[in-house]
Amino acid sequence: MRQQSRTRAARWIFITPFMVMFGLFFAAPIVYAIVQSIFAEKGSALGFGPPETVFVWFDNYSRAMSDEAFRESLVRLVQFAAILVPLMVVTSLTLALLLDSGRALWPRFFRVLYFAPYGIPGVVATLLWGFLYIPATSPVLEMLSTIGIEIEPLSSGGVLFAIANIALWVFAGYNMIILLSALDAVPAELYEAARMDGASAWGLIWHIKLPLVRSSIILVTVFTIIGTLQLFVEPLVLLPLTTAIDSNFTPNLAAYNQAFALGNPNLAAAMAVIVALLGMVFSFGFLRAVNRKGNRAW
Amino acid sequence: MVTQKRRSKPAVSTVAVSIVLGVAAIYFVIPLVWVAIAATKSTGDVFGSFGLWFSDSPQAWDNLRQLFAQDGGVYAQWLGNSLLYSGVGAFVAMIISAMCGYAIAKYSFRGREALFSVILGGVLVPATVIALPLYFLLNNVNLTGTYWSVLLPSMVSPFGVYLARIHANASVPDEVIEAARLDGAGEVRIFASIAARIMVPALVTIFLFQFVTIWNNYLLPLVMLNETATFPVTLGLTLWNSQTQRDPMFYELVIGGSAVSAIVLVALMVGLQRFWRADLTAGSTKG
User: Fold this and answer.
1) ABC transmembrane type-1 domain spans which residues (chain B) (predicted)?
2) A181 vs B51, B97, B279: nearest CB
3) Among B49, B82, B93, B146, which is least packed by CB within 10 angstroms?
4) Could you tell me if B100 and B198 lie in one domain?
5) Do B39 and B129 fall into the same domain?
6) Which of residues 67-86 of B touch A (CB under 8 A)?
């Protein structure tokens, strides 16, 4: 019995610090955002005196959704995810499979090299790519144009790809490492057995490697989906360089703009909650879709 | 067995694979090479000479001296602030999430799974959703603008709890804990001197992951801080970048500052990547 009360006390000692911090700096802001999103500041009826805080139900949500710029930013976010998620998964998986194939010279060197950009802050990565995206400073555009290829990464048609490229550059190596260590964990006997059965290199990838690292592919996909919802820094830093980006380019930018430039934290809160809901719909929708075969991965 | 196979493979595929990997390598290093070279140039040459080669009048040393002299050496202070936020934040996050993950793994109690689900849900919440309301909350208690406003939220790592639980489950044997109990060791002592030692790979991974996350965070310091003396390097660089239109000289500072912070972080990444136990993150979904 003494034993039990001792472990009970210990359990609280271990759990409490995290839960207090989690509650104050994680859960409380979420709850606060939800509460804020259903209130609004209204000028008092007679036009003088301090504004009152009024309960407005889902007014802020309908205001956000009827705002055309905000709706466009949501559509843009979905388009961005449609570009980045497949690009990220295919790139990091291809690199991982190539490094794992045992046919690469210096695999360790390449592995470290691809991982390095993960340490570069999004801001710095965007500053650097920004220079590579404008003709005045870009050696890449210069070289392409000498062989007759003219591209404008920051034109309205290219800017989503330009931003996706930055995210790919920063995170592909990190995701590759996750997939590589999953591939490392596959027992070598499985490969031997498959080769005995006459499997080709493609057969090996398709029937053994991919199914066995499936859960890590799902992890990478979900991380990338969540990552796309954060889209904020890259358009903010690229904004002065192009007319294709405005202050409502992504939902996060729009929310930031509402809160700090336009002084409407209630509407901003509603926008932030909408982004979070969108993220949940996408993440859980994806997990449901891949887990449908009764093969739970999460 | 795999190595045997490798030797018997035709050389053609080695060449093909290596070419693809080489092209990818060029993609990953181009921005870094560009910034390293641009950091040796004057603003005029950044715009006037070919980006992947040095100009006729390199001035790397001048640029570096100017970078650290500008505004009374504020750049060094930004680097120091980034180190403070990331180092202290990640260290505390590592300890409290390791304790929590260990407790969830090794003590059975009612509501354990529910608690874990709530924490796991935290991993799925975009950080941007937290930052805005957190500003208004902390503003009520006059914490905005202080070091604490960035430091305290950085100490929360739901992902760290997740990793710690997975790793404690997999690698800290119940028998060892039982044996230590029979020897009369207290629960805290068992954790601090036995479990934590076994969990070192997980602890390092949590620390590194959180360190990079804090170092790279932009939105949180952007909304919280208003005095340049408290800025981390990410915020400082965008401050300078916003001044390039007024004075093109700031391009040299932005490029030099980006180069120095990129070199610091890449060196850190390359040096520490062998401690980076990605198999923890990769294996985590199998459990």
Assistant:
1) 79-272
2) B279
3) B146
4) yes
5) no
6) none
pTM to 2 decimal places? 0.89
| Amino acid symbol at A269 | A
The chain B residue lying nearest A283, using CA atoms, is: B124
Selected residue with higher pLDDT from B128 and B139: B139
Q: Is B223 on the interface with A (CB under 8 A)?
A: yes
Number of domains in chain A: 1
**Is the CB of residue B82 less than 8 Å from the CB of residue B231?**
no
Arithmetic mean of pLDDT, B46-72: 84
CB < 8 Å to B191, chain A: 10, 14
Clarify whether residues B113 and B158 are in a common domain.
Answer: yes
Same domain, B55 and B154: no
Per-residue pLDDT tens over the stretch A68-105: 999 999 999 999 999 999 999 999 999 999 998 888 88
Give chain B's length.
287
Q: How far are the Cα atoms of A271, A292, B49, B119, B188 from residue A284, in angstroms, in the given order?
A: 20, 12, 50, 16, 38
Report the C-alpha gap between A36 and A264 in whole angstroms.
11
Residue A26 lies in a domain: no
Q: CA-CA-CA-CA torsion for A242, A247, A253, A258, nearest 10 degrees?
A: 170
Confidence band for A188, pLDDT divided at 50, 70 and 90? confident
- For residues B125 and A28, the model is more confident at A28
**Residues from chain B contacting residue A118 (CB–CB below 8 Å):** 212, 269
- What's the complex ipTM? 0.88
Choose one of B44, B61, B78: the last residue of a domain. Answer: B61
- The count of CB pairs under 8 A between chains A and B is 291
Last residue of a domain, one of B61, B84, B104: B61
**Inside any domain, residue A269:** yes
Assign residue A237 the CATH number of its domain. Answer: 1.10.3720.10
Give per-residue pLDDT as tens, A155-172.
Answer: 988 999 999 999 999 999
| B20–A21 C-beta distance less than 8 A | no
Lowest-confidence segment of A33-47, A237-251, B141-155, B183-197 by average pLDDT: A33-47
When CB atoms are compared, the residue of A125, A128, A269 closest to B132 is: A269
Half-sphere exposure of B80 (CA within 13 A, CB side): 10
The two three-digit tokens of residue B79, written as one number: 């680097």
Cβ pair A116:B107 closer than 8 A = no
Same domain, B219 and B205: yes
Note the pLDDT of residue A142: 86
Q: Indicate the number of domains in chain B.
A: 2
Question: What pLDDT sits at residue B277?
Answer: 64
- The answer to whether position A10 is within a domain reads no
- From CA B227, how far away is CA A278, in angstroms rounded? 34
Task: Please indicate whether, in this complex, the C-beta atoms of B1 and A113 are within 8 angstroms of each other.
Answer: no
Same domain, B151 and B208: yes
pLDDT of res. A269: 92
**Containing structural domain, residue A259:** 68-292
